[in-house]
Structure prediction request, 110 residues.
Amino acid sequence: MGLFDIFKKKFETISPEAAKARQESGAVLVDVRESHEYKNFHAPGAKLISLGVLERRLKEIPSEREILVVCQSGMRSSQAAGVLSKNGYQVKNVAGGMAAWQRAGLKVVR
Prediction:
């Protein structure tokens, strides 16, 4: 696998509203921001695993469930989705990140 293969899309990007519905149906929402960002606000039920430690913490992510990844704007979560996809996860990226989540009027925990 080449250096840039991680950036080839092997995952779908979905809206925050669709992500919330999938989370309610059993998908796992993983927030890949840094801990200080997560502490400021996050989606209810989101599991914090920062992008920088994601590959070391793959065992914490259930491979039998759909995984949704979110960050602040969608850039880090896109990278995370690539990492998860190449490791065999069924993953979707949340478009626009937590900024879009809030714009959509979805609940956040502060």
